[in-house]
User: Fold these one by one.
Assistant:
Number 1:
Amino acid sequence: MSIQSTIDAAAASLSPSLARIAAVVRDNPSIVIDNTINELAAACDTSVASVVRFCHAIGFAGYAPLRMALATELGRQSAQFVGQADFGADLGRDDTLPQMAAKLASLEMLAIEETLGDLDFAVAERVVDALDGASRILLYGVGASQFVGEDLGHKLLRLGRNAVVLSDPHEAVAAASLQIPGTVAIGFSHLGETVECVRFLEVAAESGATTVALTAVKDSTIARTADHALFTAVRETAFRAGAMVSRIAQLAVIDCLFVGVAQRRYDETVEALRRTREVTRALRGR
């Protein structure tokens, strides 16, 4: 996972002083490269010791390794998004609509690239195995994460798989409590701490289901709860309503799971997609 995505994922669990450093670095990553540790501490209204603790919290031995790694990361991104001065930057108060669109495009491209680049495909293969052999697939997320579950559910239904998208927390735990052999339960939670989603996976596990979590935080409750955890890497915008960038990253992962399941029974998949496309053609108009 990239350094900036790591900071974004860790921010919610940091102490107030470390979260302040995370916010400053997230808004302007170059501040680490352009300033000494004392200068960064002053800019964040905190101590040098807090900056060192921040480095440790995101996986670095100290400030110097963080500076070197972040300089490398920014250099690589600068080459990738040549000509875009604001690549990976957050939305600003005075941005024009074209500027905001360009920033969103770069953030979403980075999210897909970093998520799939860091995806543990051995774990993904095990999830595909479980989905391919499942008698019942339960999908649950809260808020924007529900839309991701709906997308995967729609795709699996078109292959004839028994996929159920759950929209209510009571409905979710009730369905998860049924001890039906071959059940796979997938929970979607960006930060991995959504209480309803964690409980859904806990109940599913108690009932013998194979459980899967999709989240951005590796040390989150939902990741520790699930049999298999898949992770996204994102730098969410200040306007996080609807979870714009994180949703794109989650969709990239579930598309990988979908094509993995679809390929297992290639001829059946092609036929199922043909039949569902044909039968809905009249409903789509000319």
Number 2:
Amino acid sequence: MKKILFASTALVASAGFAAADISFSGEAGAGFEYMDGAADEWTLDHYLTLSVSMTGETDGGLGFGAEVDITSTTAGGGVDGSSAYIEGGFGKFSVGDVGSAVDEKLGLSDIGYGGIGTDNVAEFLVDLADSGNMMYEGTFGDFGIAISHDFNGTEITSVAATYSMGDFNVGLGYDDWGNIDTSSTVHVKAGADIADFSVNALYSRNDDNDITSYGIHAAYTMGAATISAAYSETEIGAASADAYGLGVAYDLGGGATFNAGVGEVGGVTKADLGIIMLF
């Protein structure tokens, strides 16, 4: 009797929210990772991420929603990526764990199953300013813009603008480091998707700290297989570190993909292989 009453109450309470929707999606992976010189050079890896998306619309047509990721990995788990937003013809305004505009719009892809880290070297300056709990995103034809700010101490402000021209795209970014120091970073990205070939390149420069980072990622698809290659480098004054590698991804169908990668990151040989499953 209590169960019937509870179910009836829940049904009545939700009757006024017919425009709302809750959806679930997920990703899981199982594989192996290798790092030369580590205490355990080969390690077993697994992860599971459940993504929850809640959307709705006001009587006036204003969209609203919230998103959150619930993740469990070999090292543990937690809740991340949570944000709430409103959107309409003006664009999308989000608050929460949104990161920086430059990281959201101008990042490069990694290679392999879990990623061996070639993108981290290219995005060294991007990651240093990847902090934000407010973001605005707007799309106007082929032009897009994103602006983020961190109100929780760092005061970092990030701006990214993108433009698409058929198979080609370009992007410009700017990070004001706020309370980290008085410096700023400029980013330039360019890419193309032509037939089965794609290439993306990123260049970042912070003059005040004399830091430059850059990288390129290219991929070619042949049927169910995609072959990728990447090179990146970071220069801090007279010192430098680079990364490079090759990767392969094979579509197994049904949302499953076999991925593998091998390369050298900062002088250390890394490799991984495994299956990624999308739900």
Number 3:
Amino acid sequence: MELTRLTKVTTALKANALELAILTGHLLLYPSGIVSERPEAAPDPDAAPGTRPGTGRPVVLLHGFVDNRSVFVLLRRSLVRHGRHPVESFNYSPLTCDLRAAAELLGRHVEEVCTRTGHHEVDIVGHSLGGLIARYYVQRLGGDARVRTLVMLGTPHSGTTAVPWAGAHPLVRQMRPGSDVLQELAEPAQGCRTRCVSFWSDRDQVMIPVETARLDHPDLRVHNVQVSGIGHLALPVHPAVAAGICEALDIDEPDTTPEAEPGAASVA
């Protein structure tokens, strides 16, 4: 019993230390992500086959609450090394007060990416609130016609009770259990074509309870991936999670069952 308790304490201390280190590094990088990145140029239609960098659908990265694209520096590198191109980050305004409005802006950005790259579909990776915004776009705004795979990292699908002092902010209220937005997302979504993959961690200090980052919806094709031993900020940074994301995005078969998908066990 004492050994088990000691192991839990040690694991918690390691997770907290990693979160602190990541937070420190992210604060240093944060200013570099305030300005939206330049869109990548459209591919050259006259380029010889095999000369264009990377393959597959464009990947759109969507940050969380009061964050920006700098949170994805390491994940972006992993995706590019894995052969995904283009990889683009979408910054929504820190003054945004409505998740629905952010989802509409995301939809416009996705249309622009598809037009510019010549691809009919994209993949989206959303961290925390970003995953919820992308899910609203997919479920409520017809985004399933454009999004092949939606990967969500530490997203409060059932609402989180963390940081009670921040409840005055409209976006935080929309992430609370029972909010009108979460009630909308709980409604039927029959025929939704997007495949959803949700990573959740047993050490996520922002998701309270931690299981709220599991997505359970009868009409959605969902695969939940449990991550052990890392916190909320580590999800878009940890190399094992990045490997799991790359593996999830590589699956092209639309009828893949959850049992056949990667990441059924802990990845960290």
Number 4:
Amino acid sequence: MEIPVPYKVRFSTFDTWIIILTLLVFPVGGLLAFIRLASTHHHNKAKGRNLRLLGWAMVFSYISIMIILYLTYDTFGEEEQIDYLTSGIVLAIYWFLPTLIFFLVGHRLDKKFGSLLQVYQEAVVSMRLTSVEQIRSLSQTSPADVTRDLTFMFEEGLLPDGRIINGTVYIQQQALEDYLSGEYEEEYDDEYDEENDEEYDDEYDDEYDEEDSASDENDHGRPSGFQSPVSGQSSSPKTVECPGCGARVFLGTEREKECEYCGNVVCA
């Protein structure tokens, strides 16, 4: 399965309500948009979405302001029309510059996140890396980012069914076989809801605390039905820059590999 680039995290129901409130009561909607950014921006998956949300909040705030400005006129003759249009143009010049920046940076962050998801997919499925520390070194992110991002990929169906326990990635054996054989089906929720995300985290913590996991795990410390895909794991994975297009090409045990973007052969 190929991760789309740029990968855009979808707006949740809560995000949609923020945009609606921005149109109806723009100070409240704008405040909620900034609170949304402050509370979730440490997640890689949320960075592009947050800036796109701010961009749309700015757009609908402008519309709301122009409606309010129109309603302040008792009459709307030729002089009032000129005054209204002049005010709208001046406000748009200053208003839409940061809005454009939000959309452009959000797109860039979505693209960066899509590339990062491809790194994770290559590390877990192709290289069969199981250590969060190894994946962190390969992706040049923090262990916390790796854990959050891989959990997101498991939930969104971007990786075979799996979970992370004590810094080790475990993949459901049958799901991995189906994934590698091309029979794995993508299952995406219609909406990505932060409340569901929090509920999942709570259920995950309750289910896999230290006392319960002791009875569920086998002698090797992994949950029954799951395995750590260690076959073919490389102790020192390499990332080589393609001399043709500059893309990052991942080499496991291979000495050379064809770049999937331009076709040049990259050697270790």
